[in-house]
Amino acid sequence: MEIQKEQIDDLNAIVTVAITKDDYNDKVEKILKDYKKQADIPGFRKGQVPMGLIKKQYGKAVLVDEVNKLLQDNLNKYLTEEKLDVLGNPLPKQQDNFNWDSDNFSFEFELGLAPSFEVALKTKKPVTQYNIVADKKMIDEQVDRIRKQYGKLINKEIISKGDEVNGVFVNAEEEIENKTTLELSNIKSKKAIDQLVGKKVGDTVVLKTKGLFKEDYNLSGALGISREKAEKLAIEVSFTIEEINERESAVLDQELFDKVFGKDVVSSEKELRKKIKEDSEKQFEQQSDQKLLNDITERLIETIKFDLPADFLKKWIQTTGENPLTDEEANDEYEKSEKGLRYQLIEGKIIKDNNIEIQFEELKEFAKGFIKSQMAQYGQLNPAEEELDGIAARVLGNQDEARRLSEQLMSQKLLSLYKEKANLKKKEVTYDNFVKEVYG
Question: CB–CB of 203/210 below 8 Å?
Fold first, then answer.
């Protein structure tokens, strides 16, 4: 067998695989002899069927199967040994004069090769690294929310501003009938507040949905409809009052602190505020890190220029799916995937250049940390190490879960590298300002 590569250009090559009869004949003959021993053909005793008849009936199929196995095994071995960085998979070229009745065969494959390029993490233009802080306003709001959440309800007869009102929203035409709790502090419409204040149990008011709440997402929950429907809704709904309550805020004492954070974790309002600030900023760090990762990814794609074997990739996309695509469909798919492919190549280059690896033990520890945080959400704060080991083993035994966690851990490693080596401009902002600046 002989394999030769013809370099078309930096990104494209043709590999020719020449297979002779000597390469496959012994294996084909052995398989046909085994067939002969087992063949059960009318008119012949088992094992006595003439080899000529066996070859006539099975010879071509066995030949094709063995040559294809030989071809794929040796082509893959060649690509590995030659360290060819191939994009997609080799594509067989159409050969009009190919003949399976020959003794010797020649197969041609098109290769799309990965480009050569360098990655400079320290880009000329810096990337903003946000440090999101919890300001006094946010901490005050959190303290008020905790006091209200753990406070007690006092039943009332007449609605005042700030009360919580249980009632039913109805609009027969839109098939809306939903029992809910309406917090007047969440209502944006001054007219709606004026309509509700002073009303008592049993009264019904008609409210306009458009601009009713300070946060638009509250409308879908209040009416019991999807967010998509709520976004476009501009109707009138009746609200029948069933119960009126004033929420008396809880006192900031040790009993409240223990309920919220666990026994003796917090022992004063000052410590409460410090704890809220620390916890909030820890959550904000995850958001700022994701923003940084996204921005550096975009900057690298924008600044690192290289060509791709576009024609080859379009042909590969066109022919390797479940259903063949038209030229136009293949072009569309290529345009959708090109950016992702570019970053895959850039990321692979960064990982290789910086010798970044994931060892199984660190993946296991990462999985245990993830599991521990999930358990904490359900009140299991100190799981036993043996329990964590068992759950981690089951999680990592699932290939999809193991791959997902590996990708998350790799993202963390890349983020650490970027923080160390990229050109960053640090900027301290409040959460509200971060949202305005990033999301508009």
Answer: no
Mean pLDDT for the chain overall: 92
Return d(Cα 339, Cα 33) in angstroms, integer: 54
C-alpha angle with apex 134: 132 to 138, nearest 5 degrees? 135
Using only C-alpha atoms, the chain has a radius of gyration, in whole angstroms, of 34
Q: Which helix (H) or strand (E) holds 129?
A: strand 127-133
Query: Amino acid identity of 438?
Result: V
Confidence class of residue 381 from pLDDT cuts 50, 70 and 90? low
- How confident is the model over 44-66, as pLDDT tens digits? 777 778 888 888 888 899 999 99
CA distance 57 to 64: 13
Nearby residues of 432 by Cβ (< 8 Å), 6 or more positions away: 138
Per-residue burial over 363-387, b if 16 or more Cβ lie within 10 Å, else e, is bbebbbebbbeebeeeeeeeeeeee
Which pLDDT score is estimated for 297? 94
Instruction: Choose among 340, 277, 257: nearest CA to 140.
Output: 277
Domains of the chain: 2-113 (3.30.70.1050), 152-248 (3.10.50.30), 268-439 (1.10.3120)
Q: Where are the beta strands (DSSP E) in 184-269?
A: 204-208, 236-248
Q: What is the pLDDT of residues 275-299, one digit of tens each?
A: 999 999 999 999 999 999 999 999 9
SS3 of 171, please?
strand
Structure tokens at 314: 């379009």
Structural tokens at position 433: 């300002």
Alpha-carbon distance of 70 to 19, in angstroms, equals 9
* Separation CA 211–CA 186 (nearest Å): 11
* List of residues 6+ apart from 12 with CB closer than 8 A: 110, 111, 112, 113, 309, 311, 312
